[in-house]
Amino acid sequence: MTGAPPTVAETRLDAGLFALRPVDPGADAGLVHTWMNDPEVAAYWELAQPAERIAAYLREQVASAHSTPWIGCVDGVPMSYWELYRADLDPLRHHYDARPRDAGVHLLLGPSAYRGRGLGAALLRAVTDWQLRTDPYAQRVVAEPDVRNARSVRVFERAGFRPAGLLDLPVKQAAFMVRERTA
């Protein structure tokens, strides 16, 4: 049986119907390569690599025991890349006071037409709501955007994250952001 990949976290937004679908490294490598090589994205993701390296990176993410890559679509149009992961199992856990079942999130908005429109906070809220809904044991979602990326830090704050300090990570200094589960 063939057809569209399954979607999750469907949410109606002003921009349209947002949904996540699993990454297919073969089919999505070119798209993610284009996004990662956009200068605005490359400055923070540091994955401005050839398409073959991006395909290998996506295969590594798909094979991970604690991280899952997703493509975010609005009305079926791919427009964002997400990594949703167990932060308490990730190397990040060595850089903060990890709690059991901490969830983590990385995201990028791909095409520049989707940036600067206020869409990021709504997407981030929808995805982290889904993370907390699907793992009843997770009490929070953590993130670590680059401190130089002030726009990203503001998006996390508008999505309900609070700043919880700075982290000196191997590749960047990060703003440690936390969104707690609310009753």
The overall average pLDDT, rounded, is 92
First-last Cα distance: 41 Å
Count of individual helical segments: 5
CATH-scheme architecture:
3-Layer(aba) Sandwich
Relative strand content: 25-35%
- For the record, the CATH class is Alpha Beta
Describe the structure.
The chain is of the alpha+beta class and 183 residues long. The protein has a single domain, classed as Aminopeptidase. The chain has helices at 25-36, 39-45, 51-63, 119-134, 150-158, and strands spanning 8-13, 16-22, 67-74, 77-86, 103-109, 140-143, 162-168, 173-180. It has an 8-stranded mixed β-sheet, with helices on both faces. Strand 7 (162-168) and strand 8 (173-180) form a beta hairpin. It is globular, with a radius of gyration of 16 Å.
Task: Indicate the topology.
Blueprint: E1 8-13, E2 16-22, H1 25-36, H2 39-45, H3 51-63, E3 67-74, E4 77-86, E5 103-109, H4 119-134, E6 140-143, H5 150-158, E7 162-168, E8 173-180
Parallel strand pairs: 5-6
Antiparallel strand pairs: 1-2, 2-3, 3-4, 4-5, 6-8, 7-8
